[in-house]
Amino acid sequence: MSEESTQLRAALQLLARQGQASPPEPLSGELLVAYYNDQLSEDEKRRVRDHLVACADSRELLCELAVFPQEPEELPAISEARIADAWSHVRSRIASPRPALATVTEFPPRPQQAAPQRPWPWIALAAGLSAACLALSLWIGALRQTVVDLSQPQVNALIEDLYPVDDPLRLDRNAAQRVVEIPRGVTRLVLILHLGDVADSSTRTAQIVAADGHEVWRSAALELSPEGTATLSVPRRFLPAGDYRISIAGVANGDRPALIQYAVSIQYR
What we know:
- By secondary structure, the chain is of the alpha/beta class.
- Among the domains are: 8-65, no CATH class; 157-268, Immunoglobulin-like (Sandwich), CATH 2.60.40.1220.
- Helix content is 36%, strand content 22%.
- The protein contains 6 helices and 8 strands, in the order H-H-H-H-H-H-E-E-E-E-E-E-E-E.
- The chain has a 5-stranded mixed sheet, with no helix packed on it. The chain has a 3-stranded mixed sheet with strand order 1-3-6, with no helix packed on it.
- The longest helix has 32 residues, at 120-151.
- The chain is elongated.
- The model has no long low-confidence stretch (mean pLDDT 75).
């Protein structure tokens, strides 16, 4: 075998071993830049080319060098005279008089127009009055119906006789007050008041006072029946459940007034 064939065989074996081994380390950037700028010797160029055959990373770096711009050429030096001339031109521009500013004419302020008055308050007032009129109409209608109902004959009225607290004719003399139980369905309570000594009075005043002391009702026109009694008709629920004291005061011919009282307890079933 000739010497040339032996060298070729050795080179092929070396390439095969390099292909099977791990990839070589890429060349440094400085070396690739020098190779790209043709600043290496022939032996260095040959080694770089041999390395590029087996190293893909080095080949990629070398291709990227073509993208980078070349170093700019050195700018020509600026003379001192040119610099001094430039500064002199700048100073002359600064020292030159400036043109007069244009005169600004002041115009009188534009009169402000009054904002148009919105009708919202009037609309709200009209709506409120309409609602009030509607509510008043409903109330008047209910009041008329109540008047009509009261003008009709009343049924299911409960009648109770009341005697003064100290009257011996009381059937419940042992009780402190008369208990009146109003069953369901009763629309009116009729109290027959036995007046006793006040029956002879010319002027009679009736008063109903609650247990806490506040006056519930008063009348100065209490008329007597032929039997010498007075009648007090009370609508249901006019007197809430509780204790009450009914007082009748009478004066006859300027004499000493007589006073009788009735104790009653109202209860609802």
